[in-house]
Design goal:
With about 270 residues, this protein is mainly beta. It folds into 2 domains: about 200 residues, Nucleic acid-binding proteins (OB fold (Dihydrolipoamide Acetyltransferase, E2P)), CATH 2.40.50.140; about 40 residues, Ribosomal protein L2, domain 3 (Irregular), CATH 4.10.950.10. The chain has a 7-stranded antiparallel beta sheet with strand order 9-16-10-13-14-15-17, with no helix packed on it. A 4-stranded antiparallel beta sheet has the order 7-6-5-8, with no helix packed on it. The chain has a two-stranded antiparallel ribbon with strand order 1-2. A hairpin with a 6-residue loop joins β11 and β12. The chain starts with a strand and ends with a strand.
Length: about 270
């Protein structure tokens, strides 16, 4: 994957940095793996706005992704690498030997024609899905389950990865993308390699309109609101706005919101770096 800059022929082009989409091999998605995706505009079932700054955006169809990788011991061939509007990573279309088709999150380095496998007999190669008990220590992994059979939940965004550091009894010790080290059951499945589209963080939209195309509306700072609208609003001229906090009064910038008695505390060995 590469990036391209644009000649500043317009103000919007001046700072724009976009993907070259070199790795994309198909422009139309697999029809059998599409689902309807409707927009809410941030409104709930009574029509009230419960999420601000959402609305508009290009129409999208949801691609059904196989996060579980539970089709064990059946070889699959990578047919295409595709763009997915619902996520930052690229997706890969797999054709299984028994005729089934599935989408997976494409790892970095996966190419059309590669053969993939999941299960006990799979080799620790890029794109293969193995149990944490079978993956060699030190391996870079992504799409990691937190509960056996539930499907991958960790390291699914563009360029993200975790690392399997050790095993201790029924637990594997994994270093998360955030820097946190935690224990995960060895019966959970993970995919070998890092997630594709690693240069996504370097992309620059160039203009506000491109953000609107993604369905994001302008975000208003609390400081510029009125006192009735936000705890930090009001005041004559440019006031600092008091203590930083959210619209419902929750302190920000350093205030810990994690439950002190959360069940997973005993699984966390080292907290993420501040």
């Amino acid at each position: 994957m590469g990036l391209k800059k644009f000649k500043p022929t317009t103000p919007g082009q001046r700072h724009k940095i976009n993907s070259t989409f070199d790795e994309i091999t198909a422009s139309t998605p697999e029809k059998s793996l599409l689902a309807k995706k409707s927009k809410s505009g941030g409104r709930n079932n009574t029509g009230r706005m419960t999420m601000r700054y959402l609305g508009g955006g290009h129409k999208q169809q949801y691609r059904i992704i196989d996060f579980k990788r539970d089709k064990h011991e059946v070889p699959a061939t990578v047919k295409t690498i595709e763009y997915d509007p619902n996520r930052t990573a690229r997706i890969a279309l797999l054709y299984y030997a028994d005729g089934e088709k599935r989408y997976i999150i494409a790892p970095e380095g996966l190419k059309v024609g590669d053969s993939l496998l999941s299960g006990k007999s799979a080799a620790p190669n890029v794109g293969n899905a193995l149990f944490l008990s079978d993956i060699p220590l030190g391996t870079v992994i992504h799409n990691i389950e937190m509960k056996p059979g539930k499907g991958g939940a960790i390291a699914r965004g563009a360029g993200s990865y975790a690392q399997l550091n050790a095993r201790d009894g029924k637990y594997a010790i994994v270093k998360m993308p955030s820097g946190e080290t935690r224990m995960i059951l060895t019966t959970c499945i993970a995919t070998i390699g890092s997630v594709s589209n690693s240069e996504h963080s370097l992309v620059r939209s160039g203009k506000a309109g491109r953000t609107r195309w993604l369905g994001r509306r302008p975000r208003v700072r609390g400081v510029v609101m009125n006192p009735v609208d936000h705890p930090m609003g009001g005041g004559e001229g440019r006031n600092a706005g008091g203590h930083p906090r959210s619209r419902n009064g929750m302190p920000a910038k350093g205030f810990k919101t994690r439950d002190k008695k959360k069940y997973s505390d005993k699984l966390i060995i080292e907290r993420r770096k501040k």
